[in-house]
Model the fold of this input.
Amino acid sequence: MEKVGFIGLGIMGKPMALNLLKAGYPVAVLSRNKAAGDLTAAGAQAYPTTKELAQQCTVLFTMLPDTPDVEQVVSGPDGILEGIQPGALYIDMSTISPATARSIHQLMQEKGAESIDAPVSGGQVGAENASLSIMAGGSGPAFLRALPLFQALGKNVVHMGGPGAGQTTKACNQMIVGITIQAVAEAMALAREAGVDLAKTREVLLGGFAQSRILDLHGKRMIERNFEPGGKLKFHKKDLNIALQIGREFSVPLMNTELVSAQMDEAMKRGLGDLDHSALLLLLDKKT
Done:
């Protein structure tokens, strides 16, 4: 059985690492992470540096906030590249730039290792319930090796193509999610100002063609004014930056993505970046 290292034990990473433990995999984490105690209590081992962790594991996962974080963990001092062994597999489940995913793939190849970019959709609930949607980019043999591990983390696992394909797919996912959150926020704001019951509005729309998971989950958040983060707005804004970058690269106009990105910019200026991305509704509240 693969010996798994997992770096990045945040809202998503911690339950994912726990699910790998539950599936019977030996898991190792970094001792300096504040969530390491919960993992070691569940049976994980802990190592002081990324390099030592990489030396001891056949498969390494990262689940980190942004492209620079992944680059630092991979290429920085005492990083993965300094410790990874020939024949090992590196799986990055963060959401980063496809160009960086391709660059990391090349660096891993030079070390005799393989890599997969495998960002996810499903949020904290999906991570906790092992029901994530996983979009993977990399070689066919690397994907087949990773598949049993992915099946311990998600229900919908698809090999999208070569290196970077997973990250491009995730950018498309984040465009649809962001634009739909904005649409639901506008619908909720309009219904509220027109004096229509919001709970009934959501209920009837869920039974028609407007039905979506966003309307279901985030519509409920908006009605309850519950903006505790499942997915932080500032990270979604980062993801839309990646999508817009890809759009420029391939000369594809992404007008609605640009609009929602601008809304997220405004939300962050108002100090809403650490709230759930459904907090876009707050920009539609009447100014007082």
